[in-house]
Amino acid sequence: MDVVSPDLNSILPDEIMDTEAIAMEEDPPNEPPAPSVQSEPEPAQVPMEIEVSEIVSLCPATAPTQKTQALTTSTTTDSTLCSISSGTQLIVTSASSAGLKPVASSTTQSSSAVVGQGLPKLSAPLTLPANHQLILSKVAADGKSPGTTVLKQEGQKLLVTGLSKSGQPLVLALPHTWSKPATSQGTGDGKAQPTQFKVVTTGAKPVIGVQAVTSTSQLLGSSTSLQAQQLKTVQITKKTPVSTAGPMITKLIITKALNSKGLTGQAAVQAPMVPGRVLSQTTPLTPPRSIAVGEAVSTPQNISSSSKVAISPLKSPSKLTVVSVASQPPNSPQKSMTLPINVALGQQILTVQQTSTTSPVKAGTSQSTAQAVKPVQTVAIGGTPQFKTIIPLATPPNVQQIQVPGSRFHYVRLVTATTGGSTQHTASPSTNTNPSIQPGKPMMMNTAAVRMSVPIVPAQTVKQVVPKPMTSAAQVVTTSQTQQRLIMPATPLPQIQPNLTNLPPGTVLAPAPGAGNMGYAVLPAQYVTQIPQSAFVTLASSSGFSAPTSIQTQARLPLNGLSAPDTTSRPRKPCNCTKSQCLKLYCDCFANGEFCNNCNCVNCFNNLDHESERLKAIKACLDRNPVAFKPKIGKGKEGESDRRHSKGCNCKKSGCLKNYCECYEAKIMCSSICKCVGCKNFEESPERKTLMHLADAAEVRVQQQTAAKTKLSSQISDLLTRTTPAITSGGGNTESLINLHTKAPPTGSL
DNA sequence: GAGTTTGAAACT
DNA sequence: CAGTTTCAAACTC
């Protein structure tokens, strides 16, 4: 079976991608006792950052709870009440093209969910746990499979899964880490760390960007696409409501730019939102497409129409409002969505806004009257909408469905229409001005060579410009990409159970008992973020989600949660597996939850083409060792000094002073749990100190050389510029000159 | 680059 | 759980 038994859910380590999750232990937030829907956790006290395993499932089959205060004003025929635990409100409204019906959010503090027409068959209740996981998944409209749109945000994760009308799933996964931007740069309040996710697709090249922003009010990325065909921006801002009752706002806006007519989406996006605002930059040429949330299909005419999903969890009464306004031709396929929330990939704008504010939402506050003509509408719940995330979903033409033989996953390839032709490569890099955001960097995926990893180097694929001040300033992300593809496996996500994060990417979980047939897949950020290797740093599945203390950490969690030093910019080494098919833990790629990409392996099955085998292998590994995919190096409370290997090493001949030793490799001391013989990897070991000094010296040497090269290069270039062009023309010797100089610096100085 | 060494992972 | 085998990385030459 490809499917992991439900039991795994409990097994899933919280830190699968995050070794640093351990650090979170410090403040055991008031964890909602039970994920039970009826329990109402106090949102205010639960910081977003906390990795609460709880997941909010929209319209789960389970019995709804807390319907009491739900207020549904949607005129849609199919409205579903979703129970939201912890008083969160969830409102989902979709308006057909014919008539957009405003969705009113219940003012009551209790959670309420409203489902608009666009979401047919939404009989299942929506449950929104206090934790901030939001899962939107849309199921294919084939009619057989229920459609679901799930936004999952676990502290640092955001998953967006959707299936296009054609049944093409779209999944966006954001790692937890994103939600935890570097606090250092942020407000400084460790607890209040808003996270922003940006996904941007532009032009022929869809770009997906994710940003995590510390400040609550921040701008989500905007992307400019030359062709403006697709624009996706997802922004999630988390702010833990502390005593001050800081608002927690999470907005997700998915906008799809219509080829010709769409326009309003842009306007809405650009409209400054206070405190946070989202800027979407789209080329004027092609306005963004209408937003369709729910199954609504936006007719070309409805370009202006936009559907928004606003989710705003309020402290005590957290509210979630999802409004989809899409004009859909009656004929539009995939109208029947069984899932609570349907997001039409094509031409839809989804706005999810999460705000934790004390002020209750007032009914009718949602202004999103689904009028096709109108630009994107934002629904302000519990206050003014502060953050917007705009995710332009690929229009059907832009979405390619990929079928993997034997794979249970639906893969969607988002292809931006290239002006010229195929765009396989993530061409234009995007720059992210704010490094701190990197965790959420936009990621790009290449269909072929896909290494799932988070780019360490900012700016390579997606250009993001974010104002440094994480605090309140809005962040703007601009992406100009030519060719980008996104491949994401999507599966209906009826419910997500806690600890999913432990599962390796691509893991498919069997439906929980009583949850119906719907299982869900774990999508590591890596799925979403595939970038040219050169540009990115591999993100260990678990590590990436951990709350990185520094920007660098965000990029990758090294194997063992090593700290930043290693993570700086080094892509994972390619593996050389020959016999394991890269489906055993021998393979580093596999062990880290990554697909092989640009590796030297033989007969590799660790790729999308062998998803079923891969899933089996994952399951097998988990069977052998439930924590197989957890980082081996845990982080001590005090920091690195306390980090140690979870199992300890068993070295016998290396003295634990070679990289054969996992402890040494992780740059940590052996501990009492190690079973090594002749260990020299302890604090006082002279051998170790010697090695360390040598290593340091070598490192310094390298740095010096690098600096020298850089300096010489700059000097030479400067010299050349000063000299007449004649010299430049004859620059054949330039390189040799440089090389000559570069060698000059004495390497042995140290 | 080929061959050896090493220890984790996998297997019995 | 212990012993053995397999495997791929680390290392040496």
UniProtKB/TrEMBL annotation:
Residues 420-437 have a biased composition (Polar residues). Its main location: nucleus. Belongs to the lin-54 family. SMART domains: CXC (SM01114). This is Lin-54 DREAM MuvB core complex component. PANTHER family: PROTEIN LIN-54 HOMOLOG (PTHR12446:SF34), TESMIN/TSO1-RELATED (PTHR12446). Residues 25-44, 420-439, 728-750 are annotated as: Disordered. It comes from Astyanax mexicanus (Blind cave fish). Keywords: Nucleus. Residues 571-684 form the CRC domain. GO terms for cellular component: nucleus. One of its GO terms (biological process) is regulation of DNA-templated transcription. It is found in: Nucleus. It comes from the Eukaryota.
